[in-house]
């Protein structure tokens, strides 16, 4: 089934401006469906002359008549004549013929979509007549406001040039709405809207008063005033803002209403977001705390690394100096992985970004001043949790350090290639170098021991015990060494179980 973008792309007579106008329409038209208690269909004429439903909108204020998705379907033949007429109409087209949608009797009203001098299509408003049997004031005011917005479509006054639903906050008709007259006086306030302003501290009757006066009276002398607040409270522009007063917060959207002669009033949607903002503030506080913990851990690791470096400088034993430098390098490896991990909220790290910097650092630390060792990558590791990222980093840095110290000993230049293949939880990593060969780097199936041989123990422990994997050492074709790691990631997430 084709989606909205595919259908628009198939319209050969549409330019970029036409498509953008239709995107703005479907971004904002939910409010019309909700106010009108009706389903909406966006109908376009294809190049072959047939009409197709390009998009639909179900109301959230009443039961929809269309449980099935109509997008991509051709329009019923009994509607073609009416849509043909609507495409050439100057304004909204009302018909006296009722149609059947399922078991419901439906009255259709058509609004041609104008963009400049071009008619792009038609919006069909489908009203279930059974919902019109007993309407109180709330329903009448809502339907009338939805009717005014609907009638703005043929005049090119709706959608607004800045899509409301793409703005920062999102209020809904069911949360509460206020109808303003041309001068900004409240003509009607829905019960939920009245409740929102009561929570803000408003005690005056809303109807018959300027909403701008009601809103500004809630502010204290030194309270910050949102820049868009005057526009929203007066209804002079399509804008949104939040009003914070009396330990409560209300999000508001203004939708100006226009007729043939100019601005005729506005609709202001209201939503109490007090609890939502409180939770957001709690999350921000927790995020700040976690960030501070990460920062302190990183600083502590760097302090340990600095202390080991100082101790290495003080000792006169070359063997001790070598072991302290090795310890410093491993601490630095853990610190680098931790820093990459702390950049994400859910402790999932982009391992490719972390490991490239980490191994470059390992090469730099292991090489002599006159050596130039180049490292390159084939394939991707992907996203990886900390439980796997840290030990895998230690294994790879040990292999790289081993290659530089033993494979390229006495050589000025060298190349290391890391090839990665991933399928779900399984990871295959091949580390190749064009160094002196297997005899220089391998010792009884593991990395050649230097000093205490801790590097060999690290590789063996993590690969075989933690990752339930294997390490295999081979001669590289053309000279050098080839190390193959076959491991199973312990904490791979479902979203990562894909081939890389």
Describe the model.
The protein has 500 residues and is α+β, with helices and mostly antiparallel strands. The protein has three domains: 4-152, GAF domain (Beta-Lactamase, 2-Layer Sandwich), CATH 3.30.450.280; 167-272, PAS domain (Beta-Lactamase, 2-Layer Sandwich), CATH 3.30.450; 278-496, 2-Layer Sandwich (Heat Shock Protein 90), CATH 3.30.565. It has helices at residues 4-9, 16-28, 30-36, 80-87, 137-152, 191-200, 211-216, 229-234, 274-314, 318-341, 351-366, 386-407, 438-441, 454-466; strands at 39-45, 51-57, 93-101, 104-115, 118-128, 177-180, 186-189, 239-245, 248-258, 263-272, 348-350, 372-378, 383-385, 413-423, 426-433, 442-443, 446-447, 470-475, 481-488. The strands form five sheets. It has a five-stranded antiparallel sheet, with helices on both faces. Helix 3 (30-36) packs antiparallel against helix 5 (137-152) and helix 11 (351-366) packs parallel to helix 12 (386-407). It is elongated and about 95 Å long. The two termini are 29 Å apart. The relative contact order is 0.06. Residues 165-169 and 492-500 have low confidence and may be disordered.
Report a brief summary of the structure:
By secondary structure, this protein is an alpha+beta fold. It has helices at residues 4-9, 16-28, 30-36, 80-87, 137-152, 191-200, 211-216, 229-234, 274-314, 318-341, 351-366, 386-407, 438-441, 454-466, and strands at residues 39-45, 51-57, 93-101, 104-115, 118-128, 177-180, 186-189, 239-245, 248-258, 263-272, 348-350, 372-378, 383-385, 413-423, 426-433, 442-443, 446-447, 470-475, 481-488.
């Amino acid at each position: 089934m084709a989606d909205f973008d595919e259908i628009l792309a198939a319209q050969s007579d549409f330019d970029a401006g036409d498509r953008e106008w239709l995107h703005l329409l479907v971004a904002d038209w939910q409010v019309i469906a909700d106010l009108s208690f009706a389903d909406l269909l966006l109908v376009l004429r294809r190049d072959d002359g047939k009409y197709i439903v390009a998009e639909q909108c179900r109301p959230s204020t009443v039961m929809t008549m269309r449980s099935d998705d109509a997008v991509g379907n051709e329009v019923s033949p009994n509607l073609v004549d009416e849509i043909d007429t609507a495409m050439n109409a100057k304004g909204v087209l009302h018909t006296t013929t009722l149609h059947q949608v399922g078991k419901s009797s439906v009255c259709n009203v058509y609004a041609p979509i104008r963009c400049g001098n071009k008619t792009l299509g038609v919006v069909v408003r489908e009203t279930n007549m059974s919902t019109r049997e007993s309407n109180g004031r709330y329903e009448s005011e809502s339907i009338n406001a939805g009717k005014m917005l609907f009638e703005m479509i043929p005049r090119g006054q709706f959608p607004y040039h800045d899509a409301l639903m793409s703005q920062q906050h999102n209020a809904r008709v069911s949360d509460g709405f206020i109808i303003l007259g041309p001068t900004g006086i409240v003509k009607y306030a829905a019960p939920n809207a009245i409740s929102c302003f009561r929570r803000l501290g408003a005690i005056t009757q809303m109807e018959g008063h300027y909403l701008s006066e009601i809103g500004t009276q809630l502010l204290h002398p030194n309270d910050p005033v949102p820049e868009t607040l005057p526009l929203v409270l007066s209804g002079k522009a399509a804008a949104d803002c939040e009003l914070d007063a009396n330990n409560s917060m209300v999000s508001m959207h203004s939708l100006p209403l226009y007729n043939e002669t100019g601005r005729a009033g506005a609709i202001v949607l209201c939503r109490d977001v007090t609890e939502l903002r409180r939770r957001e503030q709690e999350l921000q506080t927790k995020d700040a705390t976690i960030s501070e913990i990460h920062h302190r851990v990183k600083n502590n690791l760097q302090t340990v690394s600095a202390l080991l470096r100082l101790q290495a400088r003080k000792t006169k034993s070359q063997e001790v100096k070598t072991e302290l430098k090795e310890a410093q390098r491993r601490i630095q490896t853990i610190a680098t992985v931790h820093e990459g991990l702390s950049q994400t909220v859910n402790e999932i790290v982009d391992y490719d970004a972390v490991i490239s910097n980490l191994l470059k650092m390992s090469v730099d630390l292991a090489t002599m001043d006159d050596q130039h060792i180049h490292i390159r990558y084939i394939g991707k590791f992907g996203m990886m949790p900390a439980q796997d990222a840290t030990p895998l980093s230690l294994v790879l840095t040990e292999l790289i350090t081993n290659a530089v110290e033993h494979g390229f000993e006495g050589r000025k230049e060298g190349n290391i290639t890391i090839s990665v293949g991933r399928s779900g939880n399984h990871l295959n990593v091949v580390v190749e170098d064009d160094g002196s060969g297997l005899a220089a780097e391998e010792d009884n199936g593991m990395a050649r021991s230097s000093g205490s041989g801790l590097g060999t123990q690290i590789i063996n422990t993590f690969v075989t015990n933690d990752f339930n994997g294997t390490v295999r050492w081979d001669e590289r074709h053309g000279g050098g060494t080839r190390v193959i790691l076959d491991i199973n990631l312990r904490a791979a997430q479902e979203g990562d179980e894909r081939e890389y």
